[in-house]
Write a structure and sequence with these properties.
Elements lengths: L2 H6 L19 H16 L3 E6 L4 H9 L16 E7 L5 E2 L6 H9 L3 E2 L17 E3 L6 H6 L14
Antiparallel strand pairs: 1-2, 2-3, 2-5, 4-5
């Protein structure tokens, strides 16, 4: 049994097309890492708000239909292992356009997470970058996750140092 089977699959939002910002639907290590990143960003003068934690397949399909994502099938968000943020500006409003998330990559890496800015390997050119996204699964492990053959345990660290 994993967080995915014990918590996510049992939650009524598992099939909901609505966005989910509930930190309780992040796997516990991922949740702790996200909380640490938010606190560390605040100490640096950046205010981050969570915009999405868990994402159902129904939500993913709706986003794909609107052209808001390149992925038709839900990725790491669907396993409670990813989080998206928005940076809050000095005036208290969400900065949806032009926000500088460059600090987030280093915070993600320092907290055992993968940043959508370089997907865990800045030496490889990436055609898709997701500046406000972090996840606790290395891209090389995603196939095992998506096939149901594997789910990260508490000791798993996706960042290769």
């Amino acid at each position: 049994m994993t967080f995915y089977t014990e918590v996510l699959q049992q939650d009524p939002r598992f099939t909901s097309p609505d966005p989910c910002r509930d930190m309780a639907l992040l796997e516990p290590v991922t949740r702790a890492n996200v909380q640490a990143i938010i606190a560390q960003a605040a100490a640096m003068g950046h205010t981050l708000h969570v915009t999405e934690t868990f994402r159902s397949q129904a939500r993913q399909e709706a986003l794909f239909a609107k052209g808001a994502t390149q992925l038709r099938h839900v990725g790491v968000h669907g396993y409670g292992l990813a989080c998206d943020f928005v940076l809050i500006g000095p005036d208290g409003s969400a900065d949806w356009d032009g926000a500088d998330y460059s600090f987030l990559r280093d915070l993600a890496n320092a907290n055992g997470m993968i940043s959508g800015q370089d997907w865990g390997d800045s030496t490889i050119p990436h055609t898709f970058r997701d500046m406000d996204h972090i996840q606790r699964v290395n891209v090389s492990d995603q196939t095992r996750l998506f096939s149901g053959a594997w789910y990260p345990d508490a000791g798993y660290v996706p960042v290769v140092r």
